[in-house]
Design a protein that fits this description.
453 residues, alpha/beta, Rossmann fold, GMP Synthetase, Chain A, domain 3, seven-stranded antiparallel β-sheet, five-stranded mixed β-sheet, globular, ANL_N_sf, Phenylacetate-CoA ligase
Amino acid sequence: MKDKIYKILPDFLQGLLISLFNKLAYKERYGGKYQYYLNKFKANRTLSREELVAVQKKRFAEFLSFSKEKSDFYKNYELVELEDISQLPILKKEQLRQSIKDVVTISKKDAIVSKTGGTTGKSLEVLYTADNMQERFAMLDDFRGRSGYQLGKKTAWFSGKDLLTSKDLTKKRFWKTDILNKVRYYSTFHIKESYLKYYVEDLIKYQPEYMVGFPSTILEIAKYGINHGYTFPAKTVKAIFPTAESITEEMRLHIEGFFKTKMLNQYASSEGAPFIFECQEGSLHLELQSGIFEVLDDNNQPTTEGKLVITSFTTEGTPLIRYDIGDSIILDDPARSCQCGNNNPLVKEILGRIDDYIYSPETGKINLGNVSNTLKDTKGILRFQAIQDELNTISILLVVDHSFTPKVEEVFMSNWRARVGQQMTINMQIVQDIPVEKSGKYRIVKNNIKHLL
């Protein structure tokens, strides 16, 4: 009913309705113990590595004990020290889905409900306690606050909110504004060549201090602005905070170049993974206060590059202990420290979704970063998507402009051959548009054969 009412309201009243909805949401996020947690994280910024590990050990003991007592799923778990966490079983995604009623510790009516995007075709509903949600937002706001961000600063937000009406499309208005909190939500469902002009021009006019959201959307806007000679006002955007998607070097090059500011990466998840934050020095830090990060190989042995198994201290509503979240990272040298003063361990690279790769029988796995780098020395390719439905075949959809020539296609194909070898069949198809997922995210890679590997 509320959606139907929203759709028939004029633009101004829709903005007020969004403000009202956000006011209720912010009461949950920023009430209770939020300020206590925010003050704590600010105070803890300069803790030594030894102090951070001590906090992590204490929180793990408390969290494991809580989960064992409150969750039917964990009731038979052994109480172990952090050093012996490998004695506990690894929790897979499908197991979590099937056992969710036994895992949760609170009822849905008393919870804050979060739904995963379901890009693999299966969504998951996770329950948070209000206290845990407030702690997560405090930790996130502490990270963003290091760049001056706080609620009420003019912000451009790019997420999976479906807020537009047919009248908006007619008027070429691809955004809605929370007037009270100065947040303009830009649609991520209408990113195509004929609309990007309106995004660029409105962002130049709106002049946000901060930008938050899907980097794939921000990338398309930046590339359009660069290719069509737009100049974004210097010293306008103080920082860009990407969410939900992996960051590639191409994204940094175009986004930071056009908007003339730094993009500060972060890692979390809808399920409630612990945080990884990028500092102003460009280093990625594991936040030990938020949970435990294990990087394991295919035999579940510790390694420096592999799948990420997490234990998150802010998931008391749906406890996550040794959860195989489906992402992968590369750890940095444990002896290396960062000049920013944050003494948490460093991450060399967030590789992102383990499923976001192309598999070649000849060369093996080609990860998201290498797939993205197939654009090297090309021009005219506005967007592409690689889809693998068969072991020996990939399909590549391309959205191109007039500068895409047979020579460019040859270079692009050569880049792919360098990665997948000479034996795979590569089917390229030029299309008018490549749609985003239901969540509003854009996927460069869609691997549909993981069950064969």
